[in-house]
Design a protein that fits this description.
Length: about 170
């Protein structure tokens, strides 16, 4: 694990379970509105990580890939807050982004949004977003880079790093 730039760190996941656990740790740290952008090729582990986030955040149902529905809405019992799990893989135009109302979903102050394929809507992903980049290293190994452009969001990532790696 190394710190690359001021507001990013990277680590290696050696298994699907480890990736999901990291997601769960992040989900448990989210106290309010958040946007989490998960970038990486097919099979990199984005949905696996998202499943963990949902679990840690307290979603009532297990997150499954929203590739076909594009947006899956989840709730948690404790405060009725909403989690949007969004997969933009099949989105090809600005018009389609408008149709799903992505800007409104991401702005919803009572929600957490997890976005797979955020590069399809990079102009809508704000500087406060938590970005996670997944690079497949081998069949079971993934390099994960966590970053943000926002100093308050960075506190969440620091807490994640501390909880997961002790530093
Ligand atoms: N370290 C790892 N982290 C996450 N997934 C892994 C890892 N090693 C192997 N895998 C496998 O990679 C696949 C990831 O799938 P998925 O999370 O749906 O990817 P994506 O959403 O990025 O397309 C799963 O089949 C999973 O079992
Ligand atoms: Mg996926």
């Amino acid at each position: 694990m190394a710190q690359l730039e001021p507001l990013s760190f990277e680590c290696t996941s050696h298994s699907e379970e480890q990736t999901q656990r990291l997601g769960a740790r992040l989900g448990a740290l989210l106290t309010g509105h958040a946007v989490i952008a998960l970038q990486g090729p097919l099979g990199a582990g984005k949905t696996c990580f998202a499943r963990g986030v949902g679990q840690g955040w307290g979603a009532q149902q297990v997150l499954r890939s929203p590739t076909f529905t594009i947006v899956q809405q989840h709730r948690r019992e404790v405060d009725d807050a909403v989690l949007y799990h969004i997969d933009l893989y099949r989105i090809n135009s600005e018009e389609e982004l408008l149709t799903i109302g992505l800007a409104e979903l991401l702005d919803d102050e009572r929600s957490v949004s997890i976005v797979e394929w955020p590069e399809r809507a990079s102009h809508l992903i704000g500087s406060e977003a938590i970005r996670v980049r997944f690079i497949p290293i081998s069949e079971t190994k993934r390099q994960l880079t966590f970053s943000t452009q926002d100093t308050r969001t960075w506190q969440i990532l620091l807490a994640l790093r501390k909880g997961a790696f002790g530093v």
